[in-house]
Amino acid sequence: MQYSQFIAGEFRQGTSAERFTVIDPSTGQPLGDYAHAAPADVQAAIDAAEGALRAWRSTSALERSVLLRRVAALMRERGDAIATQIARELGKPFGEAQKEVVTAAEMFEWAAEEARRIYGRTIPARAGGITQTVALEPIGVVAAFAGWNAPAITPSRKISGALAAGCTIVIKPSEETAGVALHIAKAVQDAGVPDGVVNLVFGEPGAIADQLCASPQVHMVTFTGATAVGKQIGAKAALTMKRATLELGGHAPVVVCDDVDVERVARAAVATKYRNAGQVCTSPTRFLVQAGVFDAFRERFVQAAQTLKVGDPFDAATQMGPLKNPRRLQSIDRLVQDARDRGLTVATGGERIGTEGFFYRPTVLVRPTRDCDAANIEPFGPVALISPFGELDEAIAEANRLPFGLAAYAFTNNLQRAHRLAGEIDSGVVCINEWQASLPETPFGGHKDSGLGSEGGIEGLMEFLRVKCVRQGASA
């Protein structure tokens, strides 16, 4: 992979003296390096997006739809190459990486369909000779920020939504998974999307964020990442009255009632929890299990976690790869050590695997106290917490205790309980008896400290549109 920037339809090197090295988390060895974007490079990307905006917003919805479908088709054709890049840069098992590429392509396909369904409306007037219409217009140049944990899905969601709405975009994907984003840029280019409509810059995150958020040429900011950083981005955007869509962190609760098939739920819970080594913002983490089935669930969950195959992402038997970087190893170690210092039970895991790469054992903490760090800080790694509860009130209170509300899960075969859990858990997404928190066609966004606005679905497309009301008389 030749790492670079992508500005005005050209793959070019950044002009900063600073360089960034992309690391293979399975080995700790470098995959390549590239020069950061300097302020002049970022400005060139902004200028390119602004320069392309008039023509792109005037492009028919049908033509935009055709181009987005071409991007999706190219991503599907190049699926193995993109999945290989994901596995190398992120450490996600190759089979999971292939599924991520399919979902990323579906983001473009969904946006292509919805580009043709951006409808306005006519409002009945109070008097004759007056027409009142509502038009939806592209908001303008979009600044986007995407993390490393879903390096194909997250950029694809932001790019496809912006382009479907008629916007142009400058996106800063993660420097740590730059190659995956560049594969998407290449598909955009080869599909025939005009130069300047999509621009990718990589560099010092804070400096790029400051420049994009301050620019009067940028009209909207969309960010996916940590809550603390997202709040800063939102505050910077507000200073120049930019719309901000923020998809931030979570600490997902899972309520397991005593009327479920414990074996089935526990087995599926382990597969979902340790997907992508737990480095997923919607990862189920705080398992709240009703007392009558607590011991059985804990035993089966721990057994399943212990049998997970951790290793080489390109080994077909691997079920969990490495953590992304040494920072994640240190963060997980701190949470586990805090639990041990408090005398909590580490039922399995709690240690690094080997010294090559950034592998960590699937970890389970049993009966965590509310004051332990893991019960309050999103692990964003392979750590699960299992706690008992008595009545449903207790589980709902614990599910809502933290200032996060991105995704939540609940399992019960009682219809009344299911309705209550769906209605009373404060979260942007509540999954009842299933684990899929986000799809291209469904809105995805958090409550409280987990974010503002939505991505995906028609709601996500609306974020890239502004409303104009036009009242017109018969004559002047």
Please sum up the structure shown:
The chain has 476 residues and is α/β, with parallel strands linked by helices.
Strand order of the largest sheet: 14-17-18-13-12-20-21
Tell me the overall shape.
globular
What helical percentage do the residues reach? 25-40%
How much of the sequence is in beta strands? 15-25%
Largest beta sheet, briefly? 7 strands, mixed
Q: Could you tell me the number of beta strands?
A: 24
What is the correct CATH architecture of the largest domain? 3-Layer(aba) Sandwich
- The overall average pLDDT, rounded, is 97
CATH topology of the largest domain: Aldehyde Dehydrogenase, Chain A, domain 1
Question: How would you characterize this protein structure?
Answer:
This protein is an alpha/beta fold and 476 residues long. It has 2 domains: 266 residues, Aldehyde Dehydrogenase, Chain A, domain 1 (3-Layer(aba) Sandwich), CATH 3.40.605.10; 188 residues, Aldehyde Dehydrogenase, Chain A, domain 2 (3-Layer(aba) Sandwich). Helix content is 40%, strand content 22%. The chain is built from 14 helices and 24 strands. The strands form 7 sheets. The protein has a 7-stranded mixed beta sheet, sandwiched between helices. A 6-stranded mixed beta sheet has the order 9-8-7-10-11-23, with helices on both faces. Helix 3 runs antiparallel to helix 6 and helix 7 runs parallel beside helix 8. It is globular and about 75 Å long. 55% of the residues are buried. The mean pLDDT is 97.
